[in-house]
Design a protein that fits this description.
3-stranded mixed beta sheet; globular; 10 strands; Lambda Exonuclease, Chain A; alpha/beta; single chain; 45% helix; 3-stranded antiparallel beta sheet
């Protein structure tokens, strides 16, 4: 992936690029270099990540086929409900996986369709996604730290100065999503994506970042959030600190865990 803005880079090619990314910086912010190194070496997508990726595809690129996915049948024989305990079911699933296919349960597929439909019917979410480019990849060189940085924008509206990101979540309420957004480092992602885009495209500055949060189970409730100035400022501070740490780890090929000093163990705030 060359430096610049790309609208046709496959997700697999983007993820294979070794540049620093929001996901790496978020991991450094929330844990240690050793944890990031371990995650990178033994990465395997969780069920929640797979569902999130599927929902993203259905929401952002509904006209694009979904290769590599097969939905588990409801029955393996007329009148016999599908069960992984049955030999024929186990053999079928093993055969699909041997072909490199991702097997989804029927309920998982219904949930993904439900999330996509809920976003499509939500007036604010619909307006943000109605006209623009999905899955836009960015790559630039950070001369201050001597490394490459990448980002993959969910959706870039044509008629606004915004960047839009879709998040699947268990709780899209204001209170629930606010806590989740900070705990998962979404502020880092928002600030990094805006800064990277503006560095690459100074003639088309983007100043707003929107999150479309959709719950992963019925009723697939949707909420739309705009990152505040405080949210972005904190994100910028945290991603720059994480980027400096990441560069130092890469340069020294040293990925330390916790400091080797004794800490005083006190009580949590709620116990006092």
């Amino acid at each position: 992936m060359n430096y610049g803005i790309h609208t046709d880079i496959p997700a697999s090619e983007y993820h294979a690029h070794p540049a620093a990314s929001a996901s790496k910086l978020k991991k450094l912010w929330s844990s240690t270099p050793a944890h990031l190194k371990a995650d990178t070496e033994a990465f395997e997508p969780s069920a929640a990540m797979i569902m999130g990726t599927l929902a993203h595809s259905l929401i952002l690129e509904p006209e694009t086929p979904l290769p590599g996915i097969v939905v588990q049948p409801d029955e393996y024989e007329p009148g016999k409900k599908w069960t992984r305990a049955a030999k024929v079911c186990k053999e079928w699933e093993a055969d699909q996986k041997a072909k490199g296919l991702l097997v989804l349960k029927a309920d998982e597929w219904k949930d993904a369709l439900g999330m996509a439909e809920a976003v499509a019917w939500h007036p604010l979410a619909h307006d943000l996604l109605v006209d623009g480019k999905p899955e836009v990849s960015l790559c630039a060189h950070d001369s201050a730290n001597g490394l490459d940085i990448k980002a993959r924008i969910d959706f870039l509206p044509n008629s606004s100065s915004a960047i839009v990101d879709v998040k699947t979540t268990v709780d899209a309420s204001e209170r629930g999503f606010m806590r989740r957004a900070y705990d998962l480092g979404y502020h880092i992602q928002a600030a990094l994506y805006l800064d990277l885009w503006n560095a690459l495209m100074p003639t088309e500055l983007r100043t707003e970042f929107y999150f479309i949060a959709v719950e992963s189970s019925k009723p697939y409730a949707v909420n739309v959030f705009k990152a505040s100035a405080e949210f972005l400022s904190k994100g910028r501070e945290d991603y720059k600190a994480a980027l400096t740490l990441y560069a130092a780890c890469v340069k020294a090929d040293n990925w330390p865990a916790y400091s080797q000093e004794v800490k005083e163990l006190g009580l949590p705030k709620y116990a006092v």
